[in-house]
Design brief:
The strands form two sheets. This protein has a three-stranded antiparallel sheet with strand order 2-1-3. A two-stranded antiparallel sheet has the order 4-5. It contains 26 helices and five strands. The relative contact order is 0.09. A hairpin with a 4-residue loop joins strand 1 and strand 2. Helix 3 packs parallel to helix 26 and helix 13 packs antiparallel against helix 14. It starts with a helix and ends with a strand. It is mainly alpha-helical and 569 residues long.
Length: 569
């Protein structure tokens, strides 16, 4: 018996066909496929590939009638699917997507609450993503297009190209682009370090690049909060032994002075952890710089190093524990060439900048609560293998919400882990866990409801429980429709552009799952979406999934009276 909600979607599909969609399909057959021009030389397409080809052709045609932001977004993602059939056509679509992005109007640039590019810098977001794809395929074409992009995008893509040319050992081109980047507000320190490491030991180019970076630091970066890595401080630590002592001492003086000046106006807190379990924290930018640079001064000017430690004993415990500073916590910070697979030993770094101590104490309290929740979750997760029944009982005592507003529900997260772990061997426990997830999700924010319902529907399918999967997917679709109403609310709309609306992402999650229930269902879902731009993107995303490529968009939400938030599935 066909579930009622599927009947409703089928009805929508029939009505659309009656109102002219069938004519569109008929006309489509008379139009050469986007890939027919190459079919004499291309391998024969499978049924899925042919279906994807037709979907992409429809979406590209639909893109022509969309606003510039959604037209650019749809063409960008369509290009990634089209290139599976025709690389040249796919590449041309990327260029078309970039061209469309130039007509995007920025709408929230003056908002003091604007917290993300997908809201106030949509053109920059699109151009950066599209040019990155072009640069991967053709660095020369990316170089040609870069001057037409936003200034911040130029900086991003030039940095990427420097790394591309360095990897290919085209050092002359990499140096030329690095010289261009020296004029940017943010110097590409990480890319400059990679180039210096790739150059032969003793190369005079190492000194010229260092001085170029030093000049940029004095002009721009001295006004930025210090970082433990990926800035001028790390470059100093790596290469000081290869450089003239006077240049090193001048750079150290400048870096320490800049950190002291910044600390007068803001309070920086930095914590880090490493792959080996090392962790530490600093209470100011000046402490970060002392940790980096005192080990160098101990070699060059021991008396000064001792004086600095006496004046700033707060950094003493860290340097006693890690006497070589940054190099003690990350052994990859050297002047030796990197080997394939070498990765930074520092696994995470967290920064906070504030001039209000009360905010820091509130943040510390939240961190403490969050750490306790994480310990409780870990305890229950360890029980799953040996005693899943007890784990299920204990999971019910976990908090429904976390210490941070955007954190996924601790209880539902652990219940889903229990369900996945027991799906094959103990279906009763898995079903009980999934039932609790569905019940608990009712009180969560819409995005979390949609996330856990689609996760549950997917697991029901793996457990061969199609009826439960269908029912759960139906509930997720209702959440997507509710979220669209919230996103498109005329009085208080989501200020992010439609391509990254949460409703867009949730519809896509549903469409990903739908083929396992019915091969016709994904397109029926697409036809039921009331927004043409979102429907075109969903058609592209579905086509790309048929080709083995899954879209994983970052979702953004911002309303007039609330801060920005970024959500990821």
């Amino acid at each position: 018996m066909t579930p009622s909600y599927l009947t409703g979607w089928a009805t929508i599909f029939v009505l659309l066909s009656t109102c002219g969609f069938s004519q569109q399909i008929g006309e489509k057959r008379s139009i050469p496929s986007a890939f027919d021009t190459a079919k004499k030389t291309a391998p024969k397409l499978t049924g899925k590939q042919r279906h994807a080809s037709d979907l992409l052709q429809i979406a590209v045609a639909e893109a022509a009638g969309l606003e510039p932001d959604m037209r650019s977004f749809v063409l960008w993602h369509a290009a990634l699917g089209v290139e599976a059939f025709d690389k040249k056509k796919g590449f041309n679509l990327l260029r078309d997507a970039f061209l469309a992005s130039q007509s995007v109007e920025e709408k929230q640039t003056d908002s003091k609450d604007c917290g993300m590019e997908e809201v106030c810098h949509v053109r920059r977001f699109l151009q950066g993503s599209i040019l990155h794809e072009i640069a991967i395929r053709s660095p020369a074409e990316a170089e040609r297009l870069v001057p037409q992009a936003e200034a911040d995008v130029q900086q991003l893509i030039v940095s990427f190209l420097i790394d591309q040319y360095t990897h290919k050992k085209d050092f002359e081109r990499a140096k030329a682009l690095l010289a261009t980047a020296a004029g940017f507000e943010r110097y590409p320190y990480s890319e400059a370090v990679n180039l210096m490491l790739a150059l032969p030991a003793g190369s005079p180019d190492r000194l010229s690049i260092f001085m170029q970076a030093f000049n940029s630091f004095q002009e721009h970066a001295s006004k930025e909060p210090p970082r433990l890595t990926d800035d001028f401080g790390e470059m100093l630590v790596r290469f000081w032994q290869d450089l003239p002592q006077t240049a090193v001492v001048d750079a150290i003086d400048s870096v320490l002075s800049a950190a002291q000046e910044l600390d007068k106006h803001q309070r920086l807190k930095l914590s880090f952890s490493t792959q080996q379990g090392i962790s530490g924290s600093f209470g100011s930018g000046y402490e970060v710089r002392l940790f980096q640079l005192i080990p160098i001064l101990e070699q060059l000017d021991k008396d000064r190093a001792e004086d600095l430690l006496k004046e700033n004993n707060s950094v003493n415990p860290m340097l006693v524990q890690y006497p070589r500073g940054l190099q003690s916590v990350d052994s990859t910070v050297t002047n030796k060439p990197r080997h394939e697979g070498d990765e930074s030993g520092i696994s995470s770094t967290e920064y906070s900048i504030s001039d209000a101590p009360g905010i820091d104490s509130a943040g510390a309290a939240r961190e403490q609560v969050q750490a306790e929740i994480r310990r409780s979750m870990d305890h229950v997760e360890k029980e799953i293998a040996d005693n899943p029944k007890q784990a299920l009982a204990d999971a019910g005592n976990l908090p429904l919400t976390g210490a941070r507003d955007l954190m996924l529900s601790p209880r539902c997260q652990v219940l889903m882990k229990i369900a996945r772990a027991t799906a094959k061997k103990n279906a009763d426990i898995a079903n009980s866990a999934l039932e609790q997830v569905s019940k608990a999700a009712e009180t969560l924010p819409l995005m979390q409801q949609g996330h856990f319902l689609t996760e549950a529907a997917d697991l029901y399918l793996k457990m061969m429980q199609t009826d439960e999967a269908t029912k759960t997917l139906q509930e997720a679709m209702k959440i997507a429709e509710k979220f669209y109403g919230k996103d498109a609310d005329g009085n208080d709309p989501n200020l992010a552009f439609k391509g990254v609306w949460p409703s867009t992402g949730l519809w896509w999650k549903c469409i990903q799952i739908a083929p396992a229930i019915s091969t016709a269902l994904p397109e029926q879902l697409i036809y039921s979406i009331p927004d043409a731009g979102i429907a075109a993107f969903e058609r592209v995303a579905y086509a790309n999934s048929l080709l083995g490529r899954r879209e994983s968009p970052e979702l953004a939400e911002q309303h007039k009276d609330r801060g920005a938030s970024v959500i990821s599935f």
